[in-house]
Amino acid sequence: MADKRIFEIYRYDPDTDAKPRMQTYEVELDGSERMLLDALMKLKKQDDSISFRRSCREGVCGSDAMNINGKNGLACLTNMLTLPQKVTLRPLPGLPVVRDLIVDMSQFFKQYHSIKPYIVNDTPPPEKERLQSQEDREELNGLYECILCACCSTSCPSFWWNPDKFVGPAGLLAAYRFIADSRDQVKEERLENLEDPYRLFRCHTIMNCVDVCPKGLNPTKAIGKIKEMLVKRA
Amino acid sequence: MAQTIHKYDAVVVGAGGAGMRCSLQLAKAGLRVAVLSKVFPTRSHTVAAQGGIGASLGNMDEDNWHYHFYDTVKGSDWLGDQDAIEFMCREAPKVVYELEHMGMPFDRNPDGTIYQRPFGGHSAKYGEKPVPRACAAADRTGHAMLHTLYQNNVRNKTQFFVEWMALDLIRDSEGDVVGVTALEMETGEVAIFHAKCVLLATGGAGRIFAASTNAFINTGDGLGMAARAGIPLEDMEFWQFHPTGVHNAGVLLTEGCRGEGAILRNKNGERFMERYAPKLKDLAPRDFVSRCMDQEIKEGRGCGPNGDYIALDLTHLGGETIMKRLPSVHEIGKNFANVDVIKEPIPVVPTIHYQMGGVPTNIHGQVVVPKNGTPNSIINGLYAIGEASCVSVHGANRLGTNSLLDLLVFGRAAGNHLIDTALASKTHKPLPQNAADYSLSRIDVLDKSSGGEYPQDVANDLRKTMQTHAGVFRTQASMDEGVSKVLAIDERAKHLSLKDKSKIFNTARIEALEVANLMEAAKATMVSAAARKESRGAHTVDDYGDTPEHPLGRNDVEWMKHTLWYSEGNRLDYKPVNLKPLTVESIPPVKRTF
Questions:
Q1: CA distances from residue B172 to B79, B433, B435 in whole angstroms, order as listed
Q2: Closest Cα of chain A to B216: distance in Å?
Q3: By three-state DSSP, how is residue B587 classified?
Q4: Least CB-CB distance to B335: which of A14, A55, A77?
Q5: A20: which DSSP letter?
Q6: What are phi and psi of B131, to 5 degrees?
Q7: Which of A76, A157, A158, B305 is the 20 to 30 Å CA partner of A29?
Q8: Do B331 and A59 touch (CB under 8 A)?
Q9: What is the pTM of this model?
Q10: ipTM score of the complex?
């Protein structure tokens, strides 16, 4: 069954283009292109200059995040049947564009690094594993699964306005992942690090992050828990 | 134009599990280490591993490393080197505990210890019954591990060069490796990394096949670099087919499904593995299960309108267990097969998954090659670890969970070896003149290309050819035909053409450079396979079947040896398997039954 689609794709190559433009493509899908990424790969055969990141094609590496008909998502997890005949693809909003659908994610990772994304526990470890109860371990569910695709942070108006000051939903989700870990010993310092009008409190619970997360995670809830802890501390 | 030169003690190529376990060890010791990666580190393919890390912690049932050692030797169909296997299995508990101390979110038992699940080929008491040995974080073990390693590298200030593709090894006139060239993808510039030591941790080349569980980035870049630098590739005929790739999608469903109790069924609903492997049943090793599935399909008991797949049945596990232990499997079923695995079986087929062969090394990760009559002569300045390497712990067939273990054990061991041999106090050997010329000329050819074929067209033909001629069941005639076809494609791959000539993040150019690496891996695979006149592990050839003299087609007298393939001259050499463990008795070869 013929399935003709129209793709409108954001194109920008700083080497040759004075400014960005939208380029229209027509592509006939033959049914073997289940996901948007498959369709994009087919398009790239037509025009090898279309640039985007991709790797695992199963939604776990976080490479192929983009803005799909106005909403952030992963190309490899977006079923073509859920998309209308015309598909508009833009780079993730709010980050500098390197080329076409490829954005410069430095600011995003800088914020992730700023929350000290690692367990700090200076007591000498036992010979075997540190014990953790099943209940304590369950606290990490919904937090550790983040794939750092940046769909959430780049859908957040607060992050668009203050990408250098607001940690953003992905970074704050990670912050709470370490606060919530029973093996971590620097919870207070972690909270201190976030007690700031910008770093945490720029979150105005708009919840775009929850809406777009391809892994079904809930950064807003994690942010709420951090806010609660800060209130209790005060 | 002169190239920028970056100077480091050690340069790790690849930021997957092996590369980052190694760089962590080096950074912690205060060495100057750079990690080059084509992708942001947490996008490396280790992230897709699901089931677990093998280690005989014995948290849930009696276990010890001797059992693990026995299972791995038997799993390898006696092609694995028993010194390396002993080393890996003994080190296993330690590297898992270390990872836990780093913050890895393992699932837990009621007593707070790490949760372990049974896995294919892992048994207690030397094959008597399955044992829970796979240390797991739900079915996201690779993701949890890769992120934990990245986080600890961040803490220890490892220097990452993200979205840099390594191109070629730099060897001096004595044959020592003194650095590597690499392309910065964002700018298109080539730089030289001058190092006392280069470690290849570039993963496998699973993308030489059409149907593969592997990520697009798995193009065997380290293999290509080694092959072009005159270093042989070992045992490349051995490719693992994972029994449970999603039919028509290739996406992996972890063996942890069967570890948790899922069952493979044919069209009659029969649990057919009971017939083939009375003791381990669905948890026999992967080569064995894959062959049984193919047998069922061949004999007309496959499922579906075309009878071309097997059903993986999880329905009896219940929604609660599935959502707790196998949440990603549930997600994958929904996304890639329109199946709710809680309610109905999911169609699966054996799918290319893992490369047992690679760059030959010893147990310290040092690359070793035959020289002046010694089979394992060290190449100064070069290490290889993880799937890119062949140490060889997996031999002719890897056991599930031993890959993540391999990354941790040998990533750490290579790091420690460099520290123990006082890398920091050594001086850099000088770079040869024009060290980047070879890489620059390869890029120049692409930049000036016109009228040739597109890289992806050539790569697709290669993948189809490999799928047909080096699949689960092989025949001598088909492999021989495959050799000439692959060599013909190799000629085409020398004349690739790009439309996109931009310097900035030119993914078409990256793909063309990857095709050069795929070609080396594919030639090594096809030529090595056609030359091995027996069946062993994953290399199953119809012509070499079960006879009293050669049980299951394995011919230990003539073929218990490692293959070495050299790109130059497309020639083969062989070296003996090490049957002598470090401290224990050797496990003598017997017919494999489960």
A1: 33, 9, 9
A2: 5
A3: coil
A4: A77
A5: -
A6: -130, 140
A7: B305
A8: yes
A9: 0.97
A10: 0.98
